[in-house]
What we know:
The chain is α+β, with helices and mostly antiparallel strands. The chain contains three helices and four strands. A hairpin with a 2-residue loop joins strand 1 (about 25-30) and strand 2. The N and C termini lie far apart (about 40 Å). The model has no long low-confidence stretch (mean pLDDT about 80).
Amino acid sequence: MAFGNLKRTIQMITDTERNFRKTALTNKINGLTIDTCNSPDCGWETGIQKETWIIVEKYADKQQAIKGHKKWCKKIKENKDLEITHCRTAEEWFFGGN
Length: 98
């Protein structure tokens, strides 16, 4: 019985992740991936993949996320060597700060 409940819970989490990812915007520019989505754990955010993912900006809603995604695409097109840093510190991530 417990295994069936675990399986349903995992399926629910997977389905939720897929539904959030359906709203993703993704571009590859100058060898980098720019991805904006409404993630289940952090809400609307833009990440840029260099060696690892760097979350560069968070947004309150979908409209801001779309504008932010376009802004980051333009920045990367204009400067392929742009210094990219996380928008939050490790402490903010851990303790839930903005």
